[in-house]
């Protein structure tokens, strides 16, 4: 079989803020999607593209290298570059990027996949709250997806041990993604502006309002205790703690914040616990039962973020509606919406408070 070099139509916009190498990548992928390039077709040489489009060789080399990393094209020594695989144009492609794996985040992902439908390709990546890893994932896949759905949460700062909202490197990378292709979930980044698709939690206000709903139940307890994990790898938003303390100050509750539920806790009657981590929840419930305290009467227990198991074991929760969050993200993509929407957060009483 004789492989003939195909002519290539690249769309290079000199006024665009999208890097030229990325525009080359996007154009070649479009050529494959619309059938102008087929598997096995030979691509123009680096020199040919450089001369025809007045681009530096380094720019073209970077574009071809990125396409090779994605295995979309391959190179043959002394012969050139060839289309290595088809790009499925019938499927809408979304890259769903989570900061960590957890039960409720997998619930969000699965609901999102179901809401988007079977004719959509949804790929999942995890960046473990590592900003550099997130930047790498975004840059490697910038031209390969129709939409990017991101939950932005990051590790604590090494110097001051504070929870990092978002750093400049991540923001600059996110700003390279067209706003109609980006959906932010869970944690709003105000630096991106308000004209984006975002379904978010207002962590400080959410816990405050949920505890307001539970106020009459909470009044029967002498002390409120928040078990807020000090996890440098997968940190929880500090706004949760701020909202808890604001509520306790407003209503004059005796309050304490612990970094975890310790073995052999000094449990006292008429204490109520707000538990963030599921392992802490298990430990508290076990210790309470071992000491023959009655949950919901002697010791109050409220868990943060609902799961089917918490419903099964009748644990009272304060939680966002994860299914609604996922369904809203899918709706925004399908309807081309760019709106800033707070997600529903509520108090669900199951008798453990």
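Q: What amino acid sequence fits the structure above?
A:
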């Amino acid at each position: 079989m004789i492989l003939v070099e195909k002519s290539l139509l690249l769309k290079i916009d000199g006024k665009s803020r999208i890097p030229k190498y990325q525009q080359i990548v996007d154009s070649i992928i479009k050529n494959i999607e619309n059938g102008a390039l087929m598997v096995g077709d030979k691509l123009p040489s680096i020199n040919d593209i450089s001369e025809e489009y007045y681009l530096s060789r380094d720019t073209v080399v970077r574009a071809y290298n990125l396409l090779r990393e994605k295995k979309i094209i391959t190179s043959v020594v002394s012969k050139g570059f060839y289309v290595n695989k088809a790009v499925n144009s019938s499927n809408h492609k979304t890259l769903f990027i989570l900061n960590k794996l957890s039960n409720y985040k997998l619930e969000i992902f699965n609901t999102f996949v179901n809401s988007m439908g079977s004719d959509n390709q949804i790929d999942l990546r995890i960046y473990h709250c590592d900003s550099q890893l997130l930047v790498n994932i975004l840059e490697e896949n910038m031209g390969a997806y129709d939409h990017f759905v991101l939950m932005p949460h990051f590790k604590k700062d090494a110097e001051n041990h504070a929870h990092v909202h978002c750093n400049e490197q991540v923001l600059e990378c996110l700003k390279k993604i067209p706003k109609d292709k980006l959906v932010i979930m869970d944690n709003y980044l105000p630096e991106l502006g308000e004209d984006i698709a975002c379904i978010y939690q207002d962590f400080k206000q959410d816990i405050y309002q949920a505890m307001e709903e539970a106020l009459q139940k909470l009044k029967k307890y002498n002390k409120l205790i928040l078990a807020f994990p000090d996890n440098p790898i997968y940190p929880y938003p500090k706004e949760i703690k701020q909202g808890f303390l604001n509520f306790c100050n407003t209503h004059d509750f005796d309050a304490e914040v612990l970094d975890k539920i310790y073995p052999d806790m000094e449990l006292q009657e008429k204490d109520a616990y707000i538990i963030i981590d599921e392992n802490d929840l298990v430990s508290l419930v076990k210790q309470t039962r071992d000491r023959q305290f009655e949950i919901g009467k002697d010791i109050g227990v409220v868990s943060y973020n609902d799961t089917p198991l918490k419903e099964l074991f009748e644990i009272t929760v304060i939680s966002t509606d994860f299914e609604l969050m996922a369904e809203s993200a899918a709706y925004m993509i399908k309807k081309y919406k760019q709106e800033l929407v707070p997600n529903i957060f509520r108090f669900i009483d199951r008798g453990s408070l």
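Q: And what stands out in the fold?
A: The radius of gyration is 25 Å.
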